[in-house]
């Protein structure tokens, strides 16, 4: 990405934050966890690539070996978030019908 595109994207994010009333630094703080995961996965990909080059693998086997370290890193870093999402998705909740509380009091 060029410096001009970078500057335009930052200016666009700033403008969007101003429109919705979010401080720019609050957005940056919220994005930090995603950036952290992306950086660790990129480093893990480099480890996988080094393993492939050292073992002289090629083809589909090389792709599997390259992809396993970032997969393991992602699962390790994001497993708690995934479990929270799954827990919320399958949590049993009583359906709420409008006026049901008033009808129950009759």
Task: Give me a quick take on this structure.
This protein is an all-alpha fold and 106 residues long. It contains four helices and no strands. The radius of gyration is 23 Å and the shape is flat.
Account of the 3D structure:
This protein has about 110 residues and is an all-alpha fold. About 80% of the residues lie in helices and about 0% in strands.
What is the 3D shape?
A: flat
- Give the termini distance in whole angstroms: 65 Å
Query: What is the number of helical segments per DSSP (H or I, 4+ residues)?
Result: 4
Number of domains: 1
By helix and strand content, what is the structural category?
mainly alpha
- Sheet with the most strands, sense and barrel status: none
Uncertain ranges:
none
Mean pLDDT: 82
Order of helices and strands: HHHH
Fraction of residues in helix: over 70%
* Number of strand elements: 0
CA gyration radius, whole angstroms: 23 Å
Strand content is: under 5%
What characteristics describe this protein?
4 helices; 106 residues
Architecture blueprint of SSEs:
Layout: H1 3-20, H2 24-55, H3 59-90, H4 100-104
Helix pairs in contact: 2-3
